[in-house]
Amino acid sequence: MDKVEQLEQNCWTVLSPEEKVAVHKIAGQYLKFLNASKTEREAVDYIYEQACQAGFIPLQECTELKPGQKVVMQDKGKVCTLIIIGKDSMEEGINIVASHIDSPRLDLKARPLYEEEGLAWLKTHYYGGIKKYQWLAIPLALHGVVIKKNGEKVSIVIGEKEEEPVLTIADLLPHLAKEQMEKKMSEAISGEGLNALVGSIPMDGESKSPVKNYIMQLLRDRYDIEEEDFTSAELELVPAFPAREVGLDRSLIGGYGQDDRVSAFASLQAVLEVANPYRTVVCLFADKEEIGSVGNTGLHSLLIENLLTEILHRAGITSYLGLRRCLANSFALSADVNAAVDPNYPEVFEKRNCSFLSRGVVLTKFTGSRGKAESSDANPEFLGRIRKLLEEAGVCWQVGELGKVDIGGGGTVAQYLAYYGMEVLDCGVAVMGMHSPFEIVSKADLYMSFKAYRAFMQDF
Questions:
Q1: CA atoms within 13 A of residue 104's CA, in its CB half-sphere
Q2: Which of 239, 274, 308 marks a domain boundary?
Q3: Residues 15-38: pLDDT tens digits?
Q4: By CB count within 10 A, which of 6, 241, 293, 340 is most buried?
Q5: Model pTM?
Q6: How far apart are CA 101 and CA 317, in angstroms?
């Protein structure tokens, strides 16, 4: 069997019995992470807690940094970074694994609550690339925070426990949907039509919007919030069902938010096992990738510069030149997913160059749309070194592109890291049904991505 044929192997066939046990063990931990981390804030809380339990010290408590030291920091509740100081000078570069912890969802508008036809509703604005029809007629949970005028933060999670109510967006019955079904999928459901049903009981003695007022009273009694507090809230509707094992052989995992929390979890588990690396390791969990990495918690900001300035200062490197050298000499894996070939839709995939479930971690040389627009195109010298590293670490890997050239495409954070001159490669798992409320990944691919990130941070 030649090397190309080996790349097309199902990696379950090369796993030892011991490794298969490890695959199912890490998958079990991953299911818990998915169910506990349906928003970026919840993911940061989980990651930060795991880091502290593993001996990472908050960066603000460290006045200086020395080789072997492990530190953690979070920013604005939506970014988290784990750092392990290496033996080499950081001016010679560091090793970065960057994933994102935001996922497509439905955000509540600033004035969401209203009443119509004797029912109370919440208006939403979808976040990221979704197929709107997939969010109809499924149970939805409300997650997020409300910041009151006095600065108090109120955390809200409704719909995750069996005894709790859920919300939903009703679909039109097929008996009356002739015109709807004749429309294009992209036009059948409008963004303004994604309104979630929240109640139907009127408040006693109220003549104007009695159902809306009753819902508001329930929120007031439970959370001590007023309607105007929605203005300074960050509330998200996400699927209410838990992540589950998929397949009679339990080889797959289905659940919400696996783009890109599968990479976030794998890189977290990997960095927790790294010790005394030669090059400083930065394991970064960022926000806003699904809408272009914008804002002050996305990587299209000064986030990474500000972070590294803090780290370098505590390590005794205070010059601007030192920061620029550190960035330009660094190596990075953009830990993000690729599209798995779905045999139900063969017309959009070029099978010789697309990725498959259970064939290992995917190396994506470039992303972007059509003519590689909005892409980072990795240099072959860097790719060659990564190939060697993965083979020495016993990692099954494959190559991948996001579908046929003229069909569409998508981007990752790679281009924002490459901006600094560092070498960057997209490296993650294949996902089937990406951006749907129930995405599918392979347990074996999850395990191989964990091994890949660990080898990169420890030995590269």
A1: 19
A2: 239
A3: 999 999 999 999 999 999 999 999
A4: 340
A5: 0.95
A6: 30
